[in-house]
TrEMBL record:
<keyword id="KW-0560">Oxidoreductase</keyword>
<dbReference type="InterPro" id="IPR001236">
    <property type="entry name" value="Lactate/malate_DH_N"/>
</dbReference>
<dbReference type="Pfam" id="PF02866">
    <property type="entry name" value="Ldh_1_C"/>
</dbReference>
<feature type="binding site">
    <location>
        <position position="162"/>
    </location>
    <ligand>
        <name>substrate</name>
    </ligand>
</feature>
<keyword id="KW-0520">NAD</keyword>
<feature type="domain" description="Lactate/malate dehydrogenase N-terminal">
    <location>
        <begin position="5"/>
        <end position="146"/>
    </location>
</feature>
<feature type="binding site">
    <location>
        <position position="92"/>
    </location>
    <ligand>
        <name>substrate</name>
    </ligand>
</feature>
<comment type="function">
    <text>Catalyzes the reversible oxidation of malate to oxaloacetate.</text>
</comment>
<feature type="binding site">
    <location>
        <begin position="129"/>
        <end position="131"/>
    </location>
    <ligand>
        <name>NAD(+)</name>
    </ligand>
</feature>
<feature type="active site" description="Proton acceptor">
    <location>
        <position position="187"/>
    </location>
</feature>
<feature type="binding site">
    <location>
        <position position="105"/>
    </location>
    <ligand>
        <name>NAD(+)</name>
    </ligand>
</feature>
<dbReference type="InterPro" id="IPR010945">
    <property type="entry name" value="Malate_DH_type2"/>
</dbReference>
<dbReference type="GO" id="GO:0030060">
    <property type="term" value="F:L-malate dehydrogenase (NAD+) activity"/>
</dbReference>
<keyword id="KW-0816">Tricarboxylic acid cycle</keyword>
<dbReference type="InterPro" id="IPR001557">
    <property type="entry name" value="L-lactate/malate_DH"/>
</dbReference>
<dbReference type="InterPro" id="IPR036291">
    <property type="entry name" value="NAD(P)-bd_dom_sf"/>
</dbReference>
<dbReference type="Pfam" id="PF00056">
    <property type="entry name" value="Ldh_1_N"/>
</dbReference>
């Protein structure tokens, strides 16, 4: 067994938290030989519920769970952590404008970014799940001036996994037959699920499905999947979101498969014409714990228009929260 690492999860008593913590504790995220100490953050009124979750975690007697810290103090939650999964966020209430939502989340993610800056390990890996995930990640990043900005990422992996599953179903293939799917941009309905480079059992996906299905079925189904789950379940995606968060962190820590890539929301660096300043979904490979954008992909006019539209939305979100950035 290796030395334990510390993993912070915020919103730990919420529904994603309930689907996520047991899998992290069981070794699904970092492997069966990597013990973890969980740092669980909640708001004060949710601490009794969180205590119940901690009791259940203990009752599993996981070999890889070496400790649990449950707290409502951000400074305790992020102390010496190697990984931070920021799940807790302010949901959109009735009549709430997008601007109010961004503002309410700024009040959560600015102090969390500062606490990560002040207390986490210098090579901490941060994944923001709480919506609006890309812009919340940007707020946290911009409040952590002492850390490498590339340590802050946002989750588009659920969209990536949804795209794989839709395409596998359509082509009668297995999920593992699908490679090189990309989610560009924002985790929102402007995201662009791109299958121009995707292969199914090594064959180009676009030679197996027609363009009308791609444009009129696949893209909107992936973009609107979250809303479809809410309609069907009466609650937003939880287990699938938790599973995607595990996938994101596992690939970031342990690497991606040869001949494939994954989608991660990461700081834009000018690649593919997306200027620096936003957290944008890109195709990435990971080796030795470091992610790199897949370069040199051909971008046609269809893709360009969609990549630019989701970029525009992210820049509008950025403009609405820039006053929350540390000076
Ligand atoms: P829940 O409302 O079940 O849980 C959220 C938890 O966060 C609550 O227990 C709440 O007390 C806690 N919380 C609120 N403010 C906090 C703070 N300042 N510090 C610590 N904890 C705090 O929501 P859940 O279904 O778990 O979803 C969590 C977030 O994930 C939401 O913002 C949701 O929109 C987002 N999602 C993101 C997805 C993605 O792909 N990026 C997909 C799934 C999900 O919709």
């Amino acid at each position: 067994m290796k030395a334990p690492v510390r993993v912070a999860v915020t919103g730990a008593a919420g529904q994603i938290g309930y689907a996520l913590l047991f899998r992290i504790a069981a070794g699904d995220m970092l492997g069966p030989d990597q013990p973890v100490i969980l740092h669980l953050l909640e708001i004060t009124p949710a601490l009794p519920a969180l205590n119940g979750v901690v009791m259940e975690l203990n009752d599993c007697a996981f070999p890889t769970l070496h400790g649990v810290v449950a707290t409502d103090d951000v400074n305790v939650a992020f102390k010496d952590v190697d990984f931070a999964l920021l799940v807790g966020a302010r949901p959109r209430g009735p009549g709430m404008e997008r601007k109010d939502l961004l503002e309410a989340n700024g009040a959560i993610f600015a102090p969390q970014g500062k606490a990560i800056n002040d207390h986490a390990k210098r090579d901490v890996r941060v994944l923001v799940v709480g919506n609006p995930a890309n812009t919340n990640a940007l707020i946290a990043q911009q409040n952590a001036p002492d850390l490498d900005p590339r340590r802050f990422t946002a989750m588009v992996r659920l969209d990536h996994n949804r795209a794989i599953s839709q395409l596998a179903e359509k082509t009668g293939a297995l999920n593992t037959d699908i490679a090189k799917v990309t989610i560009w941009g924002n985790h929102s309905s402007t995201q662009y699920p791109d299958i121009h480079q995707t292969t199914v059992k090594g064959k180009p996906a676009l030679s197996l499905v027609d363009q009308t299905w791609y444009e009129n079925d696949f893209i909107p189904v992936v973009q609107q999947r979250g809303a479809a789950i809410i309609k069907a379940r009466g609650a937003s995606s939880a287990a699938s979101a938790a599973s995607a968060a595990i996938d994101h962190m596992r690939n970031w820590a342990l690497g991606t498969a040869a001949g494939d890539w994954v989608s991660m929301g990461i700081p834009s660096d000018g690649s593919y014409g997306i200027e620096p300043g936003v957290i944008y979904g890109y195709p990435v490979t990971v080796s030795n714990g470091s992610y790199e954008i897949v370069q040199g992909l051909e971008i046609n006019a269809f893709s360009r228009a969609r990549m630019d539209a989701t970029d525009r939305e992210l820049r509008e979100e950025r403009a609405a929260v820039e006053h929350l950035f540390a000076k």
